[in-house]
Amino acid sequence: MFVPINSKLSSFGFFISIIHPTFINFIMKKSLNFLLLCMISIISAGTSLHAKPIRILVITGGHSYKTVEFNLMLASLGDNISFEIAELPAAFDMFLPENRGKYDALVFYHMWQKITDEQAKNFSECISQGKPLVALHHSICAFDDWPEYFNIIGGKYFHKPTTVNGKEFAACTYKHDLQMRIRIADKKHPVTKGINDFELFDEAYKGYYIEEGVTTLLTTDSSDSNAIIGWTKKYGKAKVVTLQSGHDVPTFESPDFRKLLKQAIEYVAK
Ligand SMILES: [Zn+2]
What we know:
This protein is of the alpha/beta class and 270 residues long. The chain has helices spanning 3-18, 21-50, 67-75, 117-128, 147-153, 249-252, 255-269, and strands at residues 54-60, 81-87, 105-108, 133-136, 155-156, 162-164, 167-169, 173-184, 198-206, 209-210, 215-220, 228-235, 238-243. α3 (67-75) links the parallel β1 (54-60) and β2. The protein is globular, with a radius of gyration of 28 Å. It starts with a helix and ends with a helix.
């Protein structure tokens, strides 16, 4: 039969036609699309890992603040961070073992003073057993008569002369409405990465105690402030970040401060 030769030729012809440039182009486009899909999947997997949902419990009370603007700042931190506000003294209940599962990290924006022995025990145990914490601004001034609080946040603003570990501290001072240069101490730290030195219009504290051995995150040259204005440490099993800044709306609205707060929350909660 004559057909085999013809059919061989026609098969060859078909083979040639399938490797025609248009076909190669088509295959390459398909491959690129596939590669792109793979990359998107990898990136979104990375994003969802990075954007782990974090429920923060913000402890307030003992100091007034602009609640609307403060809450706007909290709401701006990203879809992965949700928040609830609990005001002291009622908020002491949130440190009880049965309530600790309702949030992933604490943010302090209180300046509460009174605390009973029972409340102090639940409070410190909640954190030492692993509930992470970001302490802001006037929360450095809370609990004048509870020295364990100084150990939790790694610092303390003194309203009156106070002795810590045998060292005497005079009453601290504060100054409002200062234009401050905030310097990043370690640009590779997860709390400060991607943030350059920046300006804040804020209130400074001077003369406050800082625990030895904390890791410095932020400093300032302002003569009305301590040099170290941001640090991190461990308290028991929990990571703690303390930021002195955060008095009022200019800071709440600062993109740099918002990024700092977001990264601090993500760092301690990790
Ligand atoms: Zn203030």
